[in-house]
Amino acid sequence: MRPLSSFFPVLDWGRRYDRHALTGDLVAAVIVTIMLIPQSLAYALLAGMPPEAGIYASIAPIILYALFGTSRALAVGPVAVVSLMTAAAVGEIAAQGTAGYVAAALTLAMLSGLMLLALGLFRLGAFANFLSHPVIAGFITASGILIAASQLRHVLGIPGGGHTLPQIAASLWRNLPEINLPTLVIGGGSIAFLFWVRSGLKPLLRRAGLGPRAADIGARTGPVLAIAASILAVVLFDLDAHGVAIVGDVPRSLPPLTLPSFSPDLISQLFVPALLISIIGFVESISVARTLAAKKRQRIDPDQELIGLGAANLGAAFTGGFPVTGGFARSVVNRDAGAETPAAGAYTAVGLALAALFLTPLIHDLPKATLAATIIVAVLSLVDLSILRRAWSFSRADFGAVVTTIALTLLIGVEAGVMAGVLVSILIHLYKTSRPHMAVVGRVPGTEHYRNVLRHEVETQPHVLALRVDESLYFPNTHFLEDRLAELIAERPALTDVVLMFPAVNDIDLSALESLEAINARLRDADLRLHLSEVKGPVMDRLERSHFLDELTGGVFLSHHAATRALARPGNGGNDGVEEHGLYVI
Amino acid sequence: MRPLSSFFPVLDWGRRYDRHALTGDLVAAVIVTIMLIPQSLAYALLAGMPPEAGIYASIAPIILYALFGTSRALAVGPVAVVSLMTAAAVGEIAAQGTAGYVAAALTLAMLSGLMLLALGLFRLGAFANFLSHPVIAGFITASGILIAASQLRHVLGIPGGGHTLPQIAASLWRNLPEINLPTLVIGGGSIAFLFWVRSGLKPLLRRAGLGPRAADIGARTGPVLAIAASILAVVLFDLDAHGVAIVGDVPRSLPPLTLPSFSPDLISQLFVPALLISIIGFVESISVARTLAAKKRQRIDPDQELIGLGAANLGAAFTGGFPVTGGFARSVVNRDAGAETPAAGAYTAVGLALAALFLTPLIHDLPKATLAATIIVAVLSLVDLSILRRAWSFSRADFGAVVTTIALTLLIGVEAGVMAGVLVSILIHLYKTSRPHMAVVGRVPGTEHYRNVLRHEVETQPHVLALRVDESLYFPNTHFLEDRLAELIAERPALTDVVLMFPAVNDIDLSALESLEAINARLRDADLRLHLSEVKGPVMDRLERSHFLDELTGGVFLSHHAATRALARPGNGGNDGVEEHGLYVI
């Protein structure tokens, strides 16, 4: 049985909590709270939700993850890609700004939470692994492009929408005449300022005498400065009256208790999007958690992470939020600010709750263009087309998967992109393993080593064919072995013995067993004997569960050299040559 | 470039054709023609086609396969499972007995022919391998049950229909009161007679002095005898007037030239069924061809077989037939009757053409119950539930695939059964390879051999962790390796060096490369060095296309023993211990 603390990691670190940890956690919480306010507002905008939802979505989830998650530094809340996917999924069901939209987002968070919990309780975290790295990289890059494109209209001050690149581009083009100059000045200025902050502010702070870590944190205040400055500009020049869209009234409230819709119709419509959001969110979060944990030799339990993220999303669903996951930027800030334990997250939650109660009037005049600018600058760091070059140079198969994912995400949408990426990756794997590498081997003269006859100068005998199979045998490739053997045998009229060398055969399924039985029977009909050499322990165990070894016309040899010695006799033909019948147990 | 004779195998054997081969082929053709007449009529009934279509479907396809196919003994024509699938697919589109039904069957044959040709020309025969043996065995067994059940109504003389077992059973039950006694006597009598022929006639013929081969062929005339006797019974007792359904008027004609429909609607409706029929037909045919070829050490070229079967189906589509493939029963008769070359098939075609011209009036009074009886007796030999026991004892995964296939074929239909079988097989494979076997290894004392520490008494060192990975590394299992390593490292505080042993890693994809890079970076952050040992040639080639080897903190060792020697020093910690950096090229 698993100990209780494996379900509630808080029981583990909570017991050792001391004053040193408390100080570190409190300092980190203050810094992270300040960072999270603009980020939360921006991702709420991206998800099509009211701004306060972004703050609500950062409070309960942070606390719940702190209770159930295994990462010490992960900060959970709204993140760019999941917010985009939320907008795409919920946008199919209701119009932004309606009560139906908010209700659907809550339901999406609930479904995603339940799925993550279920995957975690059944310990099925491995399912997320069917998203290959290149597919994820391609997807994140394409999502970054989509997000940046979708926010351009806020910077230009024009209406518009769309969930694919062609839709967004067409909408931008159509509405371009309505461009609002004050909005463009604020939005463009914010983008320029934020880019400068990234490259210029940190060196400036270092020269001003700050330490590297403090300079790093100082440079991350860029969004806060941009927001303060643009609020000031709106108030001073009455830009609201000049057509600059502002955030407007935000309720002063703790996160409200909300009830997601349980309508079966809505649930069935949101099922697939929720699954994809869960998997993408989990994959993103766990890769952040692993990266952060590795430096401290801490361990991340994927199944427990699923439970932590599931609880966080359920929390978001019942407190006015929307789907959340562990984000890279917020987690790094958290760690760099000196967070010692998950309690830092809980303190951050308190900070955000205070902000939701007392600071929301301050953001009434915040221009949406500034929020869009922070999103654009943040997501452009996600866009990394170098994956294309990397994949191309490493393998054409991976390249195909990446290109498919990027193209479909941009042209058809995020859901199609993810699903196509998974499908293409699996098909490529099946295709590759369906035509395994096999080598006819011969003896390196004077040694007990056997190598590919095509790559090396080796000795072979006309009456023995030795074929090394470099792949597990399973249904897609069994006929390939049969056909290859038939071809090799047809070329060798003097043949009396065939040895299959299995050092790299890790598994055999029933198809492969039947194929081996067929090969054995066909060789027997053609007066040829079949031998095996260097069979692995688990494969041998499996073969012993069938009648194959009883029917095998030849022997099973510990080493390939033993097979060669047994068969290498002048006039060899009878069965008496096979003296050695050892098993190679690993 | 491929020689012309590889596209037209006839150019190869045709050149060596002599009097001996001619005699053998002619004798076989006469025997096979007699066998094929009842079989062709019966499968036409099963496919829901007019009886003469069965004979037409055996003429052009036989000739076209003889020109393009590679098997010397394969006989192509209507077979049970493909006829059932035809009835299921076409039955969705038109009612049996209508012109639309026949037209749809022609279109289905054309689509199937084009798909087979395309797969052959693009050399994609390997696609058929995604049907695993257990899935095929389950599917054939379930199809046999469905076919036998579907023919019961003809034996009982009642109306009915249905394409799933529950539908067929319900229809039988509903119509049972309408049972026709004379039909039941003829049908039941035929079944009893045919079963007796299978078991009793051959020994009788042997005792009567016939040789084993002649007795075998004699025993196969059972269906012809049953048909002759039941026609006689109908004529003598005027059973037609007593409600016994008979075949009725069959036109006396050579195969007509027919044009399939090119309606896009029809084509899109039949696309998936045509693909499944093509694959099932190909899989059945090639397994027959391989079995027949093996005894003579002949080779079957799967891609050329696709072309041969594609041509045969196109022939069926344009001469009044329906989808065809290579059948086991007819091929065995053909071979046992002494066929020497594919020309025997051509002579059989001539015999069937003569039968279509002159013998069709004779079958006017043939009861459908007798044809149904021949089908039932023939397909019950396909039903082999032993695959369930076999799969259960060999592996639970294979068992799951078989049960799913059988259940879905019986309950939902042939198409759902095949597709679910393929899907389940692939998922099982992905699941298995996503959690590969890995073993921490240690040295067998006094040797250079390294074995699993859990299975053997071996020596290990506290500062070195050696992990053997027994699977190719690709996206579903890379995180598994990361997590397992993190776990092992967390347990070993004294660790300084990690060696990954790769003798059974046959391939590495980009996800796995990135995972190895992440592992290397994380270990470096934790002051651990990463080494590789016994990396295979192709994997090494691939790693060299990336920067991984430049960044690797440790070495790559020819043998695992070399790694152990290099690392096994007191106070080992620096990088200078790694002197050997050889590559293991296979």
Automatic annotation (TrEMBL), chains A, B:
Coiled-coil segments on the chain, per record: none
Keywords of the record: Membrane, Transmembrane, Transmembrane helix
Primary location class: membrane
UniProt keyword RNA-binding present: no
Localization per record: Membrane
Protein's membrane topology: Multi-pass membrane protein
GO BP terms, alphabetized: transmembrane transport
Transmembrane domains' residue ranges: 21-41, 53-68, 75-95, 101-122, 134-152, 179-197, 217-237, 266-286, 306-324, 344-363, 370-388, 400-428
One Pfam family it belongs to: STAS
Keyword Transmembrane helix: yes
A Gene Ontology cellular-component term: membrane
Residues covered by the STAS domain: 454-570
Identification of the protein by name: Sulfate permease
Source species: Oceanicola granulosus (strain ATCC BAA-861 / DSM 15982 / KCTC 12143 / HTCC2516)
